[in-house]
Design goal:
With 291 residues, this protein is of the alpha+beta class. It has two domains: 148 residues, no CATH class; 122 residues, endopeptidase fold (from Nostoc punctiforme) (Alpha-Beta Complex). The protein is built from ten helices and twelve strands. Helix 1 packs across helix 7.
């Protein structure tokens, strides 16, 4: 079976998918093309990545900073700017977005009604999404595009049915999409070990040290050889002992899980086979709550 985003999910995504400010990632070479940067901020990439405003999760996830290549500067602009510059300048800048491999650049094949996209935003077989043009697209178009993006890039949607023994605090979240960027696997586990008492945990972007400290507070300890019991935790570490994933065991060879920190990664029930296959290249660890 496949998880489908609800109308409420889609409406929320439509509003937050494209950040309010436009970001354009460019190479040093592009600066030599005599583009007029008077009305924008031109920020060196190292300063940009350390900027408190543009380090917010909606920008990080929207533009997928982790994918960006060959960019030495970032143009930060109001949404109208890209609409009013010359067509030649616009094409140079939008082409640079395709080359940088940033987020919000989609294959044309993801779009059913390409005639609704202004032609200047179609570059080398890709559509470059920016805030102003996004706001002008109709709801049905956005719904189709976002649904395609989810299944093609983020999650195929396969899941297991919730067992009858599923704890009640997990039922509102199991096999559903979220509405906000940033909620990750470690947050899902912390919510679960709180037995739902700290619902706000599940929406956080949790890092390793915070996660391990919270396991101590809930009296979870690592163990080795025993089989799993309900409410145990499984984690996977890389060669540097960094936790790359965690999931909460609910019994019957099933896990409460979230892959990734975007709103397009659902909370869902996965079988042991599905989960372990995804992370088999890393080192497995297990934690249990001690009395």
């Amino acid at each position: 079976m496949k998880i489908k985003p609800t109308k409420k999910d889609l409406l929320s995504w439509m509003d937050s998918y494209v950040p309010e400010k436009d970001l354009f990632f460019i190479s040093k070479e592009l600066l030599n093309n005599e583009i007029d940067f008077t009305d924008v901020l031109l920020m060196p990439i190292d300063e940009f990545y350390n900027h408190s405003t543009y380090g917010q999760v909606n920008y990080v996830n929207g533009y997928e900073y982790w994918n960006i290549k060959n960019a030495q500067y970032v143009i930060i602009a109001e949404k109208e700017w890209i609409e009013i510059i010359s067509e030649e300048e616009k094409q140079l800048i939008l082409n640079s977005q395709v080359l940088s491999e940033r987020g919000l650049v989609l294959p044309v094949t993801f779009i059913h009604e390409t005639e609704k996209i202004p032609s200047s935003y179609v570059v080398n077989g890709h559509v470059v999404i920016q805030r102003s043009m996004w706001e002008k697209l109709d709801e049905s178009f956005k719904e189709q595009l976002l649904t395609t993006v989810v299944y093609e890039w983020w999650d195929k949607g396969e899941y297991e049915e919730s067992p009858k023994s599923l704890p009640s605090f997990l039922k509102p979240f199991a096999n559903t999409f979220g509405h906000f960027q940033g909620a990750n696997c470690l947050a899902a586990v912390l919510f679960a070990i709180s037995k739902g008492k700290q619902e706000w945990f599940i929406y956080e972007w949790i890092h390793q040290k915070t996660f391990l400290e919270k396991l101590k507070q809930y009296h979870y300890e690592e163990f080795l050889d025993e089989g799993l019991h309900q409410a145990d935790i499984v984690i996977w570490k890389d060669e540097n002992a960094i936790i790359q994933h965690a999931a909460y065991y609910i019994g019957e060879e099933l896990y409460f899980n979230k892959h990734g920190q975007t709103m397009f990664n659902p909370w869902k029930i996965l079988s042991k086979e599905q989960l372990y296959k995804e992370w088999e290249h890393l080192t497995l660890g297990k934690y249990r709550q001690r009395n």
